[in-house]
Amino acid sequence: MKVILKEDVVSLGIEGNVIEVADGYARNYLIPKGLAVPAIEGNLKDLEFRRNAIKKKEAKRVSEAKEHAKKFDGKKLRILVKVTEEGKLYGSVSLNDVTDLIKEKFKKEVDKRIIVLHDHIKETGTYPLHIRLHPEVEATITLEVASEEDPKAKVPTIEEREAKEKEDKKREKKEKRKEEAAKKEAVDDKEAAPTGKEEKEEVEPTDKQGKEEKKDKKEKGKEKKQKEPKDKDKDKEEKPKKEKKASK
């Protein structure tokens, strides 16, 4: 659904912008809150009539935002937190913590929706904070996160922290490659090793051969027994003949 913004809306645009949004978001939030109107013919004509007034109003707002940015730009904030021996945070630094720090130091309230923190704060160090005072104006603050046990300890600069993060990523990749190589080697060894089935197949022919040998021995033993009676009968026949010859 197309709508015309009547006010600046964070992440959507500034007054007078014609944008496309989800129907439900327009009907249930933007229009009832008076932040936008449907981009129908009548409203579009009205927008054209107000275009010059909106431009002048917008130029004034940009100028005011730039003046506010000077108060924040290049400044530093410091927050003390509980950390481990390695400098890792037990908890986390939230946008609410940041808005409280800004209010305390600059005596000015800032909507947390206009604060942009690109890095997830997990350890001590310095982090850039961006405050979008206007879609065209942004101020940058440096946030120092230090240990409350040793508040005077030097915290890593943004450059040092980024260099450390790169080294950590390189080390993680190296370790991951090692693990993958070890897994591959284990798989190769497993494939090369004979399985139980193969061993069984190798043993079975040996057992079969032994059975055949035993069978051959039994058959030879039977043949030998069968021959023995014949030999005895032959001896009985030859014995009377020898006796007759002897009596002659």
Description:
With 248 residues, this protein is an alpha+beta fold. Among the domains are: 2-71, Ribosomal Protein L9, domain 1 (3-Layer(aba) Sandwich), CATH 3.40.5; 75-162, Ribosomal Protein L9, domain 2, CATH 3.10.430.100. It is built from five helices and seven strands; from the N terminus they run E-E-H-E-H-E-H-E-E-E-H-H. It has a four-stranded mixed beta sheet with strand order 4-7-6-5. A three-stranded antiparallel beta sheet has the order 2-1-3, with helices on one face. The chain is elongated. The N and C termini lie far apart (144 Å).
Distance between the termini: 144 Å
The description of the largest β-sheet is: 4 strands, mixed
Radius of gyration from CA coordinates: 47 Å
CATH H-level superfamily of one domain: Ribosomal protein L9, C-terminal domain
CATH architecture of one domain: Roll
Sequence of strands across the biggest β-sheet: 4-7-6-5
Describe the structure using short key phrases:
248 residues; alpha+beta; Ribosomal Protein L9, domain 1; Ribosomal Protein L9, domain 2; four-stranded mixed sheet; three-stranded antiparallel sheet; 5 helices; 7 strands
Brief characterization of the structure:
This protein has 248 residues and is an alpha+beta fold. It has helices at 23-30, 41-72, 95-106, 158-192, 196-247; strands spanning 2-5, 18-20, 36-38, 76-81, 115-116, 125-134, 137-147.
What's the layout of helices and strands?
Blueprint: E1 2-5, E2 18-20, H1 23-30, E3 36-38, H2 41-72, E4 76-81, H3 95-106, E5 115-116, E6 125-134, E7 137-147, H4 158-192, H5 196-247
Parallel strand pairs: 4-7
Antiparallel strand pairs: 1-2, 1-3, 5-6, 6-7
